[in-house]
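so my prof wants the structure for this chain in the tokens format not the other one, which i didnt know existed until like an hour ago. anyway here's the sequence
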Amino acid sequence: MKLSDKIIKLRKVNGLSQEELAEKLNVSRQAVSRWEVGSALPDALNILQLSKLFNVTADFLLNDEYESDDDIPVIKAEKKHSKQKMQKLWGVVTGLTGLLGNFIFYIMSRFIDVMVPIVTYNKESGQKLYTYSSGHTDYSYIYFIKEHNLEFLTAMFWLMVIMGIGMYFINKEDFKSLMKKLWK
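here's what i got, hopefully its the right format
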């Protein structure tokens, strides 16, 4: 997009007439008109004022290859880096939430007695035999989860831990390409 087209677009998006833009830049309306038809170019000071007024970079205004500030390599790299940081942050939050949930269950299992089996062995076959007795209680994470039907919730918390680790270490683009390869 040419500079003249960018000036027109930015002026209209900001709801300014040629006169209003000229007034803000301390130039004549005719100067703005010449910039917009492409018969003249703004000087360096006016480019700087335009970039500040419209909140865009001078690079964007001067380079015809850029359709928006997002096309500028430095800004593109910064946005990508920012997205990666956000993904890592969400990975940490997700993983820690899963760990916290399982830690709470573990702490609860240390304070709440649950029925645990008495393990015996069959002398002939060597097979383990589990016998439950209401009088035989102890503190056990696994049996706490089973007795209180928390298997699904525990699995969800562990899945959150795994997802958090994945979100932290796996790049989003790499993950998408991996999924495409797997589903072909």
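also thought this was worth mentioning. The chain has two domains: 3-71, 74-182.
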